[in-house]
Amino acid sequence: MFKYLKNDLPASIVVFFVALPLCLGIALASGAPLFSGLIAGIIGGIVVGSISGSQIGVSGPAAGLAAIVLVAINSLGYENFLVAVVIGGAIQLVFGLLRLGIIGYYFPSSVIKGMLTGIGIIIILKEIPYFFGMDKDPQGDFAFLQVDGENTITELLKAINALISGNVNLGATAIALISMGILILWSNVLSKKGKIFQLVQGPLVAVVIGIIFFILAKDSIFNLTADHLVSVPVPENFDSFLGQFSFPNFKVLGNVEVWITGFTIALVASLETLLCVEATDKLDPHKNVTPTNRELLAQGTGNIISGLIGGLPITQVIVRSSANIQSGGRTKLSAIIHGFLLLISVIVIPKLLNMIPLSVLAAILFIVGFKLAKPSTFKQMFSLGWKQWLPFIVTILGIVLTDLLRGIGLGLVVGIVIILIKSFQNSHFLHKEGEDVDDGKIKMTLAEEVTFFNKGAILKELDRIPSDSFLELDVRKTRYLDHDIIEILEDFAFKANERNIDIKLVSERGTVRNPDSYIEFFKLNKL
After folding, report:
1. What is the mean pLDDT of residues 438-465?
2. Residue (of 449, 476, 471, 452) closest to 461 by Cα position
3. CB of 39 within 8 A of CB of 310?
4. What gap in Å lies between CA 277 and CA 435, rounded to an integer?
5. Which of 217, 191, 186, 189 is nearest to 202 (CA)?
6. Whole-angstrom distance, CA of residue 444 vs CA of residue 434
7. pLDDT digit string (tens) for 295-304?
8. What is the largest CA-CA distance in the chain?
């Protein structure tokens, strides 16, 4: 785990600065004590990070649960709500033991990519007001409708009107522009000049410059007031620090509403985690595969502990995970260190953290959002045809105009309808011919139609193939091969090379050994 410390340490610092305002903002949006968001972030990093099998996923409080948590706290009271969090964690442990982690594989690739792109667009839209020091709403409120009655579009229009009229906070705008310049310069130029610029990441430099700017700009036209800065609870002494923890009231265990809330938290948190796992595995340049059942066990353990000491529910979260990947994180050590950084910071340097301008963090998240929603992604999905493009764009619009789960649900419905149309035209099944023999030769024949519904079965078959084998993959009968399956084969080819597995593809157009691109091969065969 310490092999890639030089990669994980700087990445953990970036994730820490991204996670800090999100933990506080999600707690505020959830109607919970601010410290509860930090507890969830700390537990998500240290506990879940240690147990999870994900190398690059980062867990913590999630904006997707904010609405559920807000209603539950108002209805039950905070101490009673914590019992529901503990129950939700226990139910997640049951989900993991029942091996329900495979559910995540039944979401098509176009929907997952739409989710990533949609979240990237939301991050960009949400951070523009912060960039100019305009939005005072809680950081991390990623729903379309916000807690103050505004929505994403009206907040954006207010920021644009303020920009046109010159009614922006000069200090917030100035340090945001400086931070953006530092981040772009560091990423595109300095990181290629020497190892020191790879070890010390641009976001850390931007944060340090932001603190210096705040100190120097006092009593000037660039002065930043408290509502433009990070807000971390500052305990007066050790007793007041301990007083920030809350504990569940287990006397309400017989309350049916508490159990319903616990099951709702378990279901939504598990689904959001599994979708994030699928998404981060696709973003991972090293093609690590996260064991989903183990992830449910890790999340369940984290939620039990978080609920016991007053924290919010935890899920794996895409914003922090993608920031980790883009910052060069390689192993789970990055997530664990970020959890310890959160813990140390709230104990040792809360006053220093409260000097960080929100507009600096907005600049960092703006870059993260752009990398998730690159224009090239739209071009790529459009080139794959309407069967990939339609679920992709519907998912994006659904997430941007409603919320994360509704957007994913809309994209999934569209994807299922497309599959049903194709299934009406062709039957589909998957079977394997022959078993392992002494010479290590294995033959797998794909059916006439193979869709994302077959992802789990194909992954299972491919994972069973031993090293030093010969795999013959026969697609002569196949008339439709989903892009998701092609991506699985691309990823398997990467791992097959390391495991010395020789692959022969047999099609109507001929036979090829270990093709450079499976996507191009199947395009040639018009599958």
Report:
1. 80
2. 471
3. yes
4. 32
5. 186
6. 8
7. 999 999 999 9
8. 80
